[in-house]
Specification:
heterodimer; A: 175 residues; mainly beta; six-stranded mixed β-sheet; three-stranded antiparallel β-sheet; 3 helices; 9% helix; B: 203 residues; alpha+beta; two-stranded antiparallel sheet; flat; PEBP_euk (chain A)
Chain lengths: 175, 203
């Protein structure tokens, strides 16, 4: 089903800033500990320290998927000049399984925003075949659209995002 | 009409004909005294040139053709710009935010400072929608960019680094956009008091 204009991904502009409008084809469930990540969930840095458990749907084990976790609001939402920091990249995930069965090309780095509230998006792509996707050289200035273009991943098949902010308060007033 | 008293030094050769022609007929005119802010008394026998003080006294001696001169109060027509006072809240659009005016202003200043600093903040829906006007105003000041506007922004925003950063980056970021520099996304209510919350972010 294509995204309605009131879909949380569209409202939070994840669809504008990170990916293009797509259709949801596969179910994607992300759990940080006991907490299931719904779109727009508020998490603190302490709650996202360890990598989440991700389960994807689909039916055929011969289909492989790539999961990308990016933060488009680095270093601060008001000034995102390092747009899109790559936190996690897992490829060759067979359908109906999870990231434990995939190939972790870029290991998980917990989001640690210093300023403001950052959106962190997990985007799932369908791969054409195994071992067709490679890791980029740097984590920052990652561009999800270009990445999908380079490795022929096309439009995403699923996405979810959450909001992450620093542990206590906003950092106080500096002169 | 603003007071038409010319300064003595400049208009010695000012002729009376222009004044006489603008006044109603059958009036012996005299120039008003320099302190024209004094309210003009109805009881004076000779009619004077009326000056603006919010009340325009209609002199019964001048035949302007207005009917209905019954009493003293009828002589004063209040010119006030059309403000009406209702007993109910009809038509009042300023959000009070449950605070006295000084605290309200301080709250809005603080919230706009934080939004401009962080880019996205989470607050209650009423505060988020009350803030929009002030954030847009700050960004408009930054778009103008002159020193006067910068000083006006410094008088509103609490941290001067933010003002300087704003004036530096707003022209490229919001150059083409006309207004609507914020976006509000409603979210789940707060747990402690079930207050409806919202994210407000700079577009």
């Amino acid at each position: 089903m294509s995204l309605s204009p009131r879909d949380p991904l569209v409202l939070a502009r994840v669809v504008g800033d990170v990916v293009d409008p797509f259709m949801r084809l596969i179910s994607l469930r992300v759990n940080y500990g006991q907490r299931q990540v719904t779109n727009g969930l508020d998490l603190r840095t302490s709650q996202v320290l360890n990598k989440p458990t991700v389960e994807i749907g689909g039916d055929d084990l011969r289909n492989f998927y790539t999961l990308v976790m990016v933060d488009p609001d680095v270093p601060s939402p008001s000034n995102p000049h390092l747009r899109e920091y790559l936190h996690w990249l897992v490829t060759d995930i067979p359908a109906t399984t999870g990231t434990a069965f995939g190939n972790e090309l870029v290991h998980y780095e917990n989001p640690c925003p210093t300023s403001g509230i950052h959106r962190v998006a997990l985007v799932l792509f369908w791969q054409l075949g195994r071992q067709t996707v490679y890791a980029p050289e740097w984590r920052q200035r990652f561009n999800t659209r270009e990445f999908a273009e380079n490795y022929n991943l096309g439009l995403p098949v699923a996405a979810v995002f959450f909001n992450c902010q620093r542990e206590n308060g906003c950092g106080g007033r500096r002169t | 009409m603003a007071t038409a008293t010319p300064t003595d030094s400049m208009h010695r050769v000012w002729s009376m004909s222009s004044l006489k022609s603008s006044l109603p007929s059958a009036v012996t005119c005299r120039l008003p005294s320099p302190s024209s802010r004094r309210p003009v008394l109805i009881s004076s026998p000779s009619p004077r040139l009326p000056s603006f003080s919010g009340l325009s006294p209609v002199n019964p001696l001048i035949s302007t053709g207005l009917p209905g001169w019954q009493s003293f109060e009828d002589g004063f027509k209040i010119i006030d710009g059309g403000g009406r006072v209702y007993a109910m809240r009809h038509g009042r659009r300023v959000p009070k935010l449950n605070r006295p005016p000084d605290q309200r202003k301080a709250l809005l200043r603080g919230l706009t400072t934080q939004l401009l600093k962080h880019g996205r903040i989470k607050t209650t829906r009423a505060r988020a929608s009350a803030m929009r006007k002030f954030v847009d105003k700050m960004i408009t000041l930054a778009k103008d960019g002159s020193l006067h506007k910068r000083r006006q922004a410094l008088g509103f925003i609490y941290e001067k680094q933010i003002v300087h950063a704003l004036f530096a980056e707003v022209p490229d970021r919001y150059g083409e956009r006309n207004g609507g520099y914020t976006r509000i996304i409603r979210t789940l209510p707060r747990r402690g008091d079930n207050a409806p919350m919202a994210y407000i972010e700079l577009v």
